[in-house]
Design goal:
281 residues; D-Maltodextrin-Binding Protein, domain 2
């Protein structure tokens, strides 16, 4: 019997539908071994060859596209508002000079830079800090928070900018925060089938995931709050619209000098076929 395939993902709430099957379906027991880390840590593990497949920040996929292939089996995207990638601020956006950035973020930092530059003409100094909104806003003009910390903070701090909503306003496209990836020639159709099966199970159990997180989080929010986040704020299909959003993100990041090249993208099973972002489909 072959060893289980080792996959890497995060423990954030928005990831749970994607890995639901791996954690709850006995059918996967001898097929998949799952480890949970921060997204940037999963990227490091993938680059080092320590996991077969990983859910990684989309900007890290862009930076390492010559090494990686995109697995067409879901993503974490949002048409906005997303509620879990938020810029909280003290004063007017145009007066922002310093931003405390969550040290666990990658793609969101790039998205924030693009939004502030494109829409508000602001290029702030970034100050890496632990994701503590009170401490961040005491030290800097604004604070970038992601994931469950951002989602929780929206319940009590109304002075914020939803970055996915701003992206949709700027481009008319959803924003893709994370994708499944493997090293070049490192994934196959079986991986695609496993990832899709796990996600399909998760989407069928959103009520269970939301109810469970009510107890786990202890935030005082009800299940409807978490269910609407998973079913409305987050989108999971890596469809044409999501790919177009991904392509536009890569294009703007290159145009503003944050990427050295516009990534060339290979997908699982394409046997050497390369896509430029404008021609992902």
């Amino acid at each position: 019997m072959s060893s289980p395939r080792l996959y890497g993902a995060s423990w954030f709430l928005n990831t749970r539908p994607m890995i639901y099957g791996f954690r709850n379906d006995p059918w996967f027991a001898d097929k998949i071994s799952l480890r949970l880390d921060l997204p940037w840590e999963s990227d490091q593990l993938l680059e080092a060859g320590k996991v077969r497949v990983a859910q990684i920040p989309s900007i890290e996929f862009a930076r390492k596209s010559a090494k990686y292939e995109l697995i067409p089996a879901g993503c974490i995207s949002s048409p906005g508002p997303v509620r879990s990638v938020m810029l909280f601020f003290n004063e007017a956006l145009t007066s922002i000079r310093t931003v405390a950035v969550d040290t666990s973020s990658r793609t969101s930092v790039m998205l924030m830079r693009l939004i502030l530059k494109e829409k508000f003409g602001v290029t702030p100094e970034l100050v890496p800090m632990a994701p503590d909104p009170v401490a961040m806003l005491q030290k800097t003009d604004a604070a970038l928070l992601i994931g469950d910390t951002a989602l929780k903070t929206t319940l009590s701090n109304p002075h914020s900018l939803d970055l996915a909503e701003e992206w949709m306003d700027l481009t008319g496209l959803p924003f893709v925060f994370a994708v499944w990836a493997a090293r070049r020639e490192g994934s196959d159709q079986t991986d695609v089938e496993y990832l899709n099966r796990s996600l399909e199970m998760g989407l069928d159990h959103l009520d269970e995931i939301a109810n469970s997180f009510v107890k786990e989080s202890g935030w005082g929010a009800d299940a409807a709050f978490f269910h609407s986040y998973l079913s409305e704020s987050i989108r999971y299909p890596l469809n044409e619209e999501a790919e177009a959003g991904l392509a536009e993100f890569f294009r703007l990041a290159f145009m503003h000098g944050y990427l050295e090249d516009i990534p060339e993208i290979r997908k699982t099973g394409d046997h050497g076929k390369i896509y430029t972002p404008a021609g992902l489909n």
